[in-house]
Design a protein that fits this description.
The structure is a homodimer. Helices cover about 80% and strands about 0% of the residues of chain A. By secondary structure, chain A is an all-alpha fold.
Chain lengths: ~725, ~725
């Protein structure tokens, strides 16, 4: 069940990985600078690797336990496909690998970026951006490679009566490796997020506020931990996260394609479409990456334009490519509408994110202004503004959902063919993420520039070097807004697609259990012929079924409780960090005079321990709750849970990301000399706002995106058990 | 269509109002104390009345506009029942009246409570509690009176072929006066909440933090405004709010009863059941109120026990009364299960609220402890703990929903008779609110005690008087936790019942439009015979319909945006207050030495203007959004909106209420001498946490409860328009 076009997918994956390798080698050829720079980079690198080792150990144990359970469910209870445990494992492995490679690159790149920035801004940009591109390309390359390999494997082994049923089995089985990726991603985001923010909050509170020393000052014992945190949270965490998003979108859409086009000749092509769009996106991302280069001595404005040009070119060309894909596969051209809607949705959300979080606009300036009346009003205003900022993204997603649905059904305003419409929503998510290779590059280079700045500060390089790395960092913040828009938007769309895929899994589970006929009201339908809507009625997934309502309530609550747990985890770990830094200032004589070196390693250890201890419970909760709800309330309760979690989680995630980002930039606005500038009372208040926002934007907020999808993935994998056993 | 039992309802209403009047007269007989006390009480009273006058003027205009629109829809477009505009008006009127009487009582009671507290704690309790009871009794009395009068009126005028259809028309028409009550309540809560918190935040920030003077110090220019705020926000706002909750629960349940028992002889009795339970609850509340009395010189422990005894007696007796009601009406005894479930749900949520917000327990102590590392960690910990605290209430509500549903369907585990089950959920809400007369009394007396304390402070009464009023206030905080649990829990249950009632309205709207037959799949059903589930399928209100999903997203967003708008409104108004207080300290010489009086009136004016200007937009949004969603997405979109708003709004409301309450008590914990006590760095940090929490717990949080129900009420009133006109 292959055609020649399929081979484009692994080919593009290999091209992406090849270029990632070339960029990596080229980066390594750069000089790491003087001895101090190397020593500091070494500290950070070792700290990061030590953390990751510890992290993988803990996650490894969790994976082994879950795999054992899956194996038991497959071979013992016969409630699950026997591929699941293995798929789960590979998903986790590849996701972790993407994060690992990204982080390895980043920790090698920071000193080199700082050193290149000694020569010129442009050189700094090149090293940092190409290193970011390594992660971008590794994520998309590994994802497409994993998808291709699984397809080949399952195509070889799965035996079904008809090609059509075989395609459905293959695509739904492949979805289960998404659960592995999501699980790994959640641990990486939560663990990394707790690590980085415990260090950041601790360093800021004692360093900036109490001792009055600048950020990244080598006298601050938590400063190395802070830099390690940028790598394990913002790089390794983000890599695993977006690997998960990308795979999730492609796989869910493939599964929906298999179901929606079940009875049609184009079924295989509908499955291939998301993969091909992604594959073309990889090539266009590469093209965009190569376009990011400016002449020597370019202004920051020009640098931004260079980055924008890269992203915009990829985005525009992907529209053309989508027409090509549809032409090659012989699908309806209406599908291209869904792709364009997806791209536009991502762009609008990105722009809205920028508006609400950049200090060039009113909302963030308003937050900064409220710093004049103290920290309480900064916090109130930040929360208020963050909440209001959810309006545009949500309305955009709603319009995107409706339009991509309608395009895929050729504007059938009666909303009859739900399956095809949902396929359109999936396609929109794939379109949004198709240029991930370059958008992730612009996102990942931010922490590299940030770390380069830290290195420059600690190595006491000239002020102009720090200014250049700051410029690079600021540039990264602007482009990262777009990246965040895409991440959040795609999570919502993919979340919807995954709920639909869940029903497909239920169908297969029923068939495995021998339920060949469904009785719906007075009708009797063959299970395999039942549409999505039929299943909705069969399980009474309407909004007046108390089981559905119970699920919605619990889903909404889950988002909040999960956020609360991760917020408190950061708070607890940060408090320990604060106490340790205070202790070192008190006990190690001569730190403040720069005569003796603080105990950096101890701070790294505190963050590591804090993160490892705290990440387990919230992450396991995300896995256990859908199982428990399934066992109590059955299928309708699970769908309620997923819908409630998606609705609340999506809005909460935007709120937390935007409030956090706005506080961060409000502080920067004050630091640029507004409202009294550094050292003023307003600045102190703004720093407190920024500190509150740290776990918002880098721990709880981004983890929510994964939570939404992981709960769906768990539901999908457990579909067989839910069908067979439930209380109500 | 009346039987003798019906007359119990207006009779109990009149008894309640009579006792309210007696308590009011008795309170007025107490002395208001010396000249200073009278003068200060006069300041507060005039400020509060001036505010309320302004508030009613603005709300009056809104009501007139909406009434005109309703009249046009009824007489011009023929899309609405012609009673609606008038019902809307009376609902608003009575709700406002409940708030007004409560506030008038409170402003007369505060100086009298302070004066009585000069004699003894017990005397203070008696005056304050009986004054609180005035509001409790007025709310339930007016509500039952309004309901009875409307019933008599409609029974006289409505003409329908069958008694059964007539009952349905009457109950659904009566629901529309709930919209008037909800609209009035939302304005009262939002306006009052902004007023009180702008004053409170402003007074605290400049007074406590900057100038270092205690709370309620007469040198603080915002202190009168702060006391006015307690009256307009916590008393008038709460009165209107709970009037709305109480009516909403009774009316929605009556409408569901009419529908669920449509074809049965017991239809009228099912309608009467919620009214009778409420009526018996009034009498038992009165009994409880009379039980609250202690001997002279009783300890605080004993006082608490006295209050508890009153509440517990009413609660236990209402269980007995519910069996009596069911017996008298000849309904199934299973219904009593739903009532008991409702009561227990309220109690558990109340206990959970107490656990998470009282400083006798770990969570709040943990927040206080995090004050040692500064304001940022206090805020992070408060938000984290608040989010986690949503778990128990949500799980309790889920269990409550499922159990009250199952009881009402005699444990039909197939969940077939959705209508009867939803009636059970409504009955649970009524059960929960049945003892509102006394729970509201214990809630409303808190602000009276608070104001008495303010009066004592400003009148420079002896320290022991302030200690006594503080003890009364603290007592109120504990019992108020239970009250809040009931308010939040009943909002969730009533919200569900209202969504179900919406479908009933749709049925009537379809009949009015001449749609006598529904085609659902291959079936054809008479509109009047269609069940709730049939309607769900007819409009495809399943979780895979993109219109439903769009509604859920928008509903979730609405909760956040509404909260954000009200938070920012408080922030803006508070900033103006801060600037004004700073200006007075700067410009009016001798304030700090107590030689010249600050300009209190100017601060009251700032809060009034701030509140009036800021309350319009968020309140109107709550009315407009359901209409717009209906016009675009039709019935399925509206139900999605209501479910999404309910799920997210409920959880968000608990989060905001608990986080705010916990911050408040964490500050009190420090002030009691823990962690360094007053004046320490930890105290400063805790005050900032408390200030952030002010709009959480007194503006945004409680308004959300009303938002949820108001959106449903708007949808119900606009059902005809939505049926006739929608885009998709």
């Amino acid at each position: 069940m292959l055609n020649t076009l399929f081979w484009i997918v692994p080919a593009c994956a290999i091209v992406a990985l090849l270029f990632a390798w070339i960029f990596y080698r080229n980066m390594l050829k750069e000089s790491e600078g003087d001895e101090t720079m190397k020593r500091i980079a070494g500290h950070v690198r070792r700290g990061a690797m030590a953390y990751l080792k510890q992290q993988y150990k803990v996650v490894g144990i969790v994976f082994l336990v879950i795999c054992a359970l899956f194996a038991w469910m497959a071979y013992g209870l016969r409630l699950q496909n026997e591929w699941v445990w293995f798929a789960f494992l590979t998903g986790g492995l590849f996701s972790g690998l993407a994060g690992f490679i990204g982080m390895k690159t980043a920790t090698h790149a920071s000193a080199r970026t700082a050193n290149a920035a000694r020569r010129s801004l442009n050189d700094g940009l090149k090293v940092a951006f190409r290193s970011g591109a390594v992660m971008g390309l590794v994520v998309v390359g590994l994802a497409l490679l994993d998808i291709s390999l699984w397809w080949l494997l399952l195509d070889h082994f799965v035996e079904e009566a008809s090609a059509s049923e075989k395609a459905i089995i293959i695509t739904t089985t492949m979805l289960t490796f998404g659960m592995g990726a999501s699980t790994q991603a959640l641990f990486a985001r939560v663990g990394g997020g707790i690590f980085t923010k415990a260090a950041d909050v601790g360093a800021d509170l004692v360093g900036k506020v109490e001792a009055g020393i600048p950020e990244d000052d080598p006298r601050n014992p938590a400063t190395i931990a802070d830099n390690v945190g940028d790598n394990v949270g913002d790089v390794a965490g983000m890599g695993a996260d977006l690997y998960e998003s990308y795979c999730g979108a492609v796989l869910a859409t493939a599964a929906l394609g298999a179901a929606a086009f079940r009875a049609e000749a184009s079924q295989f092509n509908a499955i291939l479409a998301p993969m091909l769009i992604a594959a073309f996106g990889v090539v266009l991302s590469l093209l965009g990456i190569f376009m990011v280069r400016t002449r020597e001595g370019a202004s920051q404005q020009k640098l931004l334009r260079a980055l924008d040009k890269g992203i915009n070119t990829s985005s525009v060309l992907i529209i053309g490519a989508s027409f090509l894909v549809v032409y090659l596969l012989g699908l309806s051209y209406w599908i291209c509408g869904s792709i364009i809607v997806g791209l536009l949705t991502g762009i609008v959300i990105g722009k809205a994110t920028e508006y609400y979080t950049s200090h060039g606009y009113k909302p963030t300036q308003g937050i900064a202004k409220s710093a004049e009346t103290g920290p309480a009003t900064v916090v109130i205003k930040g929360i208020g503004t963050g909440m209001i900022s959810t309006a545009i993204p949500v309305i955009t997603i709603v319009v995107g959902v409706i339009l991509s649905f309608l395009f895929a059904t050729e504007f059938d305003l009666k909303f009859v063919d739900i399956s095809k419409g949902l396929y359109g929503i999936g396609i929109a998510a794939v379109g949004m993420l198709s240029t991930l290779g370059i958008t992730l590059a612009t996102d990942a280079y931010g922490p590299i520039a940030d770390n380069a700045g830290g290195n420059a500060e600690m190595s006491k390089l000239g002020k102009e070097v720090r200014q250049r790395t700051d410029a690079l960092d600021a540039l990264g913040n602007t482009t990262a807004a777009t990246g965040k828009g895409f991440a959040i938007g795609s999570a919502a769309l993919t979340g919807l697609a995954l709920i639909a895929s869940y029903i497909e899994e239920i169908k297969i589970a029923l068939a495995r259990m021998g339920t060949t006929v469904l009785e719906i009201g007075e009708r009797t339908i063959n299970t395999v012929d039942a549409t999505l809507t039929d299943f909705m009625y069969y399980y009474d997934v309407t909004l007046m079924n108390p089981k559905v309502l119970a699920g919605i309530f619990i889903g909404s609550m889950m988002s909040f409780v999960f956020c609360g747990l991760t917020m408190n985890a950061v708070g607890r770990a940060a408090q320990k960090m604060v106490q340790e830094v205070r202790r070192q200032f008190r006990e190690i004589k001569g730190i403040m005079e720069g005569k003796s070196e603080p105990d950096y390693a101890r701070c790294v250890e505190i963050s590591t321990k804090g993160a490892q201890g705290e990440m387990i419970f919230p992450s396991l909760l995300a896995i256990i709750v859908p199982v428990v709800i399934g066992l109590i309330f059955g299928v309708s309760g699970v769908i309620g849970l997923l819908a409630g979690g998606l609705g609340t989680g999506f809005v909460l995630a935007i709120f937390m990301a935007n409030a956090g980002g706005a506080w961060d930039n409000a502080k920067k606005y004050v630091e640029e000399g507004n409202l009294g500038g550094k050292g003023s009372e307003a600045h102190k208040a703004a720093v407190i706002g920024d500190t509150v926002g740290d776990p918002f934007k880098d721990t709880s907020g981004p983890s929510l995106n994964i939570l939404i999808k992981l709960m769906s993935m768990v539901a999908i994998v457990m579909a067989g058990v839910t069908c067979a056993h439930h209380l109500l």
